[in-house]
Amino acid sequence: MSDSSSPRTAQARLPLAGAPHGGALLRSLTGLLARWLPRQRWFAGKGRPLSGLTLIAATELLPCTAGGGAPGLLHLLIRTRQSPAPGSHAPPVGDCYQLLLGVRDALPPSLGPALVGRPSEGPLRGASVYEALHDPRLAAVLLERLRTPGRLGTLSFRRAPGAHIPEGLPARLMTSEQSNSSVVYGESHILKLFRRVSPGVNPDLELPLALAAAGCPRVPGPSAWFEAAWPGTVSEPLTLGVLAPFLPGSVDGWQLAIQYLGRRADFTSAAHSLGRATAEVHTTLAEALPTSVMGRAQLEQAATGMSERLAEAAAAVPALRPYRAGLRRAFEALADFARRGGTCPVQRLHGDLHLGQVLLTPDARGRGMHWSIIDFEGEPARPLAERRRPGPVARDIAGMLRSFDYAAAQARAAGSWVDGWSRASRAAYCRGYAEAAGSDPLERPELLRAHETDKAVYEVLYEARHRPAWLHVPMAAIRRLAAAPD
Ligand SMILES: Nc1ncnc2c1ncn2[C@@H]1O[C@H](COP(=O)(O)OP(=O)(O)O)[C@@H](O)[C@H]1O
Ligand SMILES: O=P(O)(O)O[C@H]1O[C@H](CO)[C@@H](O[C@H]2O[C@H](CO)[C@@H](O)[C@H](O)[C@H]2O)[C@H](O)[C@H]1O
């Protein structure tokens, strides 16, 4: 497809496209973005002061001119430069973010909260620049682009063969706590826009495509997606957004667990079927994509990686420091397991599996409920190459086990019975997994304990950066794991 598309779709004027290192546009937006960016939930660089912004690519999806009347839509890829956290001697770091900015002469009151700012210079001087996804009219432009594949500047829009995407679906931005941003279109599709992006296929596109091709019914298969060429390199394109079927009437595992806890209800049946669903997805991924086996050197290396992550987390979160020696014992036990000749199969994984990543949906015939798994992006803080590397299934299982503990922690004030709820749910999940996978995750306790400890350490850092009021949740697990007998 060329860029000359239907009247609904933007004509590419692209006076800004390819502007590699700033220019008038970025200069006029820098101050506004520098204030706005760190306040966004999805901004990954919390705790490290922002010291600079560079424009990587700019594409007009709708013409953007101050005084132009109609709203404009601007797609930006920007790179941040961040000083190390105060007190750290690490060098400055940077991340690349995707922004979709609307431009209007004046904002209607409904879009007031989406305002980024009003540039006082440059091509957008005096206009209101705002977060475009809040504007249903601009979100509709994006859907139309995804319906009509083709290129626009550095952006490429692709559609899965045979995917049916109705036109003109009303858009609503999801308001839940997210690492990215999602727009629901008419309860039929959901578009996830990745915020922190890096060159290479995002596993949240790669794995659902592979699972859909293998006929796995547990994961909504992508209908369309868009990506960008990384300017000046021949590396793989960078995935920017994925449109997938929306599962209406679904409730996520986290909400469900909290509801059950509120009613003091047993969760073992749901946890058991969730274990089965996880095993089915793992089995399909192992059949569809490359696998291998970790031997001594790789397992020792994995244990070293876990110790390093602990050291980094302890440097950032003082509360972790007293528990370092106790936690390291789990990683030493993994290295010992390797030295005793232990090996471990590895395969592609979910990478950040927890109760918020699973949806319970009424099945199409309305006769039962069905677990689906979403968000295969992996832990947002890890580099993309690491997230795409095969790993032990114990990593995902440990993530879900931690999540039962998280849910119980929310209800702890209700009494100590929640510990039994968590233990029973964890056991049922492992039983369901073992039945469907044919191998019991509890058979390699060193692997599970090391991964659970690694996950709890990750969660401490995550909560310290994003939700300090929740820090006590993983810290309770840290105390327990650090005191666990060998
Ligand atoms: N296919 C879907 N159908 C229904 N709801 C979905 C679907 N995909 C995602 N969601 C909802 O959107 C939320 C955020 O999606 P997710 O992929 O986890 O984004 P993030 O990586 O930003 O956290 C989920 O918790 C879920 O409630
Ligand atoms: O879902 P995301 O990809 O955004 O994952 C990140 O955020 C999660 C929280 O929203 C975080 O999960 C932690 O809190 C959950 C409850 O809110 C709990 O179910 C998880 O077990 C716990 O790890 C996740 O770690 C983070 O990567």
From TrEMBL:
Pathway: Glycan biosynthesis; glycogen biosynthesis
Transferase in keyword set: yes
GO process terms (BP): glycogen biosynthetic process
SUPFAM superfamilies: Protein kinase-like (PK-like) (SSF56112)
EC number: 2.7.1.175
Record flagged with keyword ATP-binding: yes
UniProt GO MF annotations: ATP binding; kinase activity
Catalysed reactions, as listed in the record: D-maltose + ATP = alpha-maltose 1-phosphate + ADP + H(+)
Gene3D superfamilies: 3.90.1200.10
UniProt domain Maltokinase N-terminal cap: residue ranges: 36-135
Pfam families: APH (PF01636), Mak_N_cap (PF18085)
Self-association and partners: Monomer.
Family: Belongs to the aminoglycoside phosphotransferase family.
Protein name per the record: Maltokinase
